[in-house]
Design a protein that fits this description.
This protein is an alpha+beta fold. The protein is built from seven helices and five strands. The chain folds into two domains: 53 residues, Thrombin, subunit H (Beta Barrel), CATH 2.40.10.170; 98 residues, Methane Monooxygenase Hydroxylase, Chain G, domain 1 (Up-down Bundle).
Length: 203
């Protein structure tokens, strides 16, 4: 992927950056191209080798259409729920490094949902805050809306997600209970083979 000066790009785990300039540097006899990125959140400069763009997951900011898809994902009621802390932390860390805003949205949903039922560890709390910041800052820039406005939309989408999940779970429980009831009735109304033979002899 090739970027031009002025492009808005996303640097995984750093957030939104703007390409300030592109230059070549010679290091240990090897000449390489570098993107100079200004990270908007803290106004720092980061150098990314042009040849390593795919490796670090550098990408363009999402489009307006992708924002709609993002909010649909945030509110769809589907949440990854790893019980094992190590497995959960590894999966979430991999998603945070992927550069995909949709992976970051998965992390935001799962950790926000988990935080409703238990206290998160320090590292998971920090990851949750980071995921929310990365989503809000990118969408705010794309939609040209305030951070507060986008944060409200994100919170609303998450609440919709949890409500949908609860509704689906309640429906599944109701269906399971009906199934158990039907099986119980069938067991009670079908006589055993010996009982059936005694009934025939008695008649």
């Amino acid at each position: 992927m090739i970027f031009q000066v002025g492009d808005k790009v996303i640097y995984p785990n750093h957030g939104l950056g703007i390409v300030q300039r592109i230059e070549e540097k010679t290091i240990l006899g090897t000449t390489c191209g570098f993107y100079h990125l200004r990270i908007v959140a803290n106004d720092t400069m980061v150098l990314v080798p042009v040849a390593n763009v795919d490796g670090v997951g550098l990408r363009r900011a999402i489009s307006d259409e992708e924002v709609d898809r993002l909010f649909g994902l945030l509110g769809d009621g589907k949440i990854d729920n790893h019980q094992n802390w190590k497995g959960r932390f590894k999966d979430n860390s991999d998603k945070m490094r992927s550069g995909s805003i949709y992976d970051v949205a998965d992390v935001l949903k799962s950790l926000t949902f988990l935080a409703k039922s238990k206290s998160l560890s320090f590292r998971e709390k920090r990851m949750l805050d980071r995921a929310k910041f990365l989503i809000i800052s990118e969408v705010s820039e794309v939609m040209r809306e305030t951070v507060q406005s986008i944060e409200g939309r994100v919170d609303t989408a998450l609440e919709r997600c949890f409500t949908t999940k609860a509704r689906v779970a309640a429906r599944a429980t109701k269906v399971a209970m009906k199934s158990v009831t039907v099986k119980s009735v069938v067991v009670k109304t079908v006589p055993s083979a010996p009982a059936a033979r005694r009934a025939v002899r008695a008649s």
